[in-house]
Amino acid sequence: MDKIKILIVEDESIIALNLKETLFELDYEVCAIVPNKCRTMKVLKQGLVPDLILMDIYLKGPTTGIQLAKELKHILPNIPIIFLTANSELATIKEASEALAYGYLLKPYKKSVLHASIEMALKKAKDDRYINEELNATQAINKTLEHKLFLNKKQEKSYIKLKYGYLFDKETSSLYYGNELIKLTSKEVEIIKILCKTPGYTISQEQLEYATWKDEPAGYAAFRSLLFRLRNKIHKDLIVNYNNTGYKIEPL
φ and ψ at 219, to 5 degrees? Predict the structure, then answer.
């Protein structure tokens, strides 16, 4: 089984070497020791991916350990960081907690406390990764369901369900009986179209004539003849004459 790889970020060489020796005794592998942000970024760019980082809060240079930890959360979001410091002030502890550290050890620390802190940090990081993976999987499922719901709603808006198993596709101006396309002439389509704009509501004959013969009215006989041919292609009660005032198409 591979050993846990730990990166030490510590600018005091003696402290770093003593820490390395302690980690070796605890059966961990120290993959690198670096003193500041510049060297940390350099080893990470070379492909080093530790399992855990032990970092001193007060590093030499313009960037503190807390600032560096915040930057590393964007580069290595799943790698736990434990802070090492001799400072026990509440303000420092609060600032360190904002960097989402997995532990905070006060120097000097016992080997057993260091060991426990590392194991707890590794366990918590593993649990966090599992939760994040579950969350990402759930979000992916939710996005898929939202997309399907969007398509279904879009489809519902595109289609008008009518009685007797008929469906009118507004986008293509096509009338279907089940999966079968009803072959209609352009004028027959116009009648269906205008009736489907307000399904269940009466449209006057004059409105239907105007929608069908836009240039000039064709007259009652021509309209009745067209309506007769259309009704022969569909269920006889799909289009009904309502109190001789007009016509309506029956929605589902």
Answer: 100, 165
